[in-house]
Amino acid sequence: METAGYVTLSRQTGLWKEMQVVANNVANISTTGYRRQGVVFTEMLQALPNEGGGVAMAAARARFSDPSQGSMTQSGNPMDLAIQGRGYFMVETPEGNRLTRAGAFALNTEGEMVNPDGLRLLDVGGAPIFIPPDAETVSVAQDGTISANGNPLAQVGIFEVQDETALSRQYGTLFAPGEEAPLAMLEPVVLQGFVEGSNVSPVTEMARMIEVQRTYEMGMKFMENEHERIRNVTRTLGQRA
Measured by CB atoms within 10 angstroms of the end CB, which terminus of the chain is less buried, N or C? Predict the structure, then answer.
C-alpha cells in the first residue's frame, strides 16, 4: 500500500470510531443524566526522506464528555433529584465510588436510596443514605439536606472536580473521578422531584452522523480510485516490458 492509502486508511479508522460515538449518543438521547461524547483527533507528522516533504496521518486518540446541562423534567417522585449547575452525585460501586448526574433514585428493601442499578447514593460524608420506614413525608432542601417528617436525616453529597477533563467514563452515566479526590460543594442547588435528561441534541447528532457517513464514503471512493490507478499503472508497465 502506498502512502496515500495509509493516510486514507488512518482517516477512515478515525471516522469509524467517531461514527460509533455518534451512534451511542443517539441511542442515549432519552437516558437520564447522560453526557454527550465526542472524539478528539490528533495529527501525526512523518518525514519522507526518499520522496521529500512529509505526510500527516489522523488518529482518533481520545474521547471527551460534554459537561453542559441537560433539560430538567419534573417526575413527581420525591426520591428523584437533579442538580442545577455544577456538581455530581456520588454512588457506591464494587470498583469504588463513582460520580454521576443521573438522579433517578428509589428506596431498596433496607431503606437506602439507590439508583436503578441498585448502587447506593452517598451523603456528604461518603456514607449511604437511610430513610426510616415510618417516614411519611420526605423532603430535600436546596442544599441537599434530607428530612423525614420534618427531622433532618442526612445531606446528599454533591461533589465537584477541579478538572472535568480528568473524569473517566466507566459505563453509562458513571464517571471515575481520576487521581484528585472530588470535593464536596459548599452551595449546591438540588431540585427534588426532578430528573436531568440527556444533553444530547438529536438534530446536532443526526447532522453529524450524516456528515461523518458522507466523509467516510468519500474516503472509500478515493481508495477505490487509488487502487484502480495502481492497477492501470501496473498493467501498462507490464505491457511495455
Answer: C
How many whole angstroms separate alpha carbon 223 and alpha carbon 17? 19
Q: Rounded to the nearest 10 degrees, what angle do helices 202-240 and 3-27 cross at? A: 160
Count of C-beta atoms within a 10 Å radius of residue 6: 13
Q: Report pTM.
A: 0.79
d(CA 97, CA 74): 27
Q: Residue 112, Cβ neighbours under 10 Å: how many? A: 17
Residue 92 to residue 149: CA distance in whole angstroms: 27
Where do the structural domains in the chain lie, given as residue ranges? 3-66+200-240, 72-196
Residue 31's Cβ-count burial label (10 Å; 0-12, 13-18, 19+) is middle
pLDDT at 63: 78
Tens of pLDDT along 116-134? 999 999 999 999 999 999 8
Residue-wise burial string across 205-236, b where 16 or more C-beta atoms lie within 10 A, e elsewhere = beebbeebeeebeebeebbeeeeeeeeeeeee
Residue 74 forms beta bridges with which residues? 194
